[in-house]
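Thread title: Can someone regenerate the structure for this chain?

I was given the following input by a collaborator and told the matching structure tokens would be attached. They weren't. Posting the sequence so someone can regenerate them.
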Amino acid sequence: MTAPTVQLYRWTREEFEQLASTGIFDPEEKLELLDGEIYQMTPQSSLHATAITLVEDILRDIYQRGYNVRVQMPLAVDALSLPEPDLAVVEGRRRDYRDAHPRTAVLVVEVADSSLTHDMTRKRPRYAQAGIPEYWIVNLSDYCLDVYRNPAGDDYEQHAVYRADESFAPISHPNRSIAVADLLP
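Best answer:
Regenerated them for you:
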């Protein structure tokens, strides 16, 4: 007779949201659900926070009418994942998401220093599977921007790295050039 194996319990997004609504988690804890697992995120450095505000300013300038730039808010990408990307550009107005978090985005941006491996290996597949057309990682470790485009399965077909002295344009606004240096603190 074989002994039963120990198995990981995967939380659903619905269970996670119910737990959060009961107050079981400290409101100051930064938690997110990815693939049924709950992750406690590390506190932000001032460098990280500065990068978020720089990216936010640029995105709000580009995505005005018909879009909502959300900062560190949940994105309900699937039944087992509720990540809180640093920034997400979603279609619609703020009140469109009063009763439920958005399920997709036009663009998701993560600012990464200590979280770089997590953002590349855990989050990127979730965003690709959700069909998010463009995913940026503001890479503070290498002082560059990783841009992923065209989701296919659990990854993206295109990956480009832009250095601080380069410019690029989001695929949804190809006429809006962004200097990478403007995204980096």
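The chain has three helices and ten strands.
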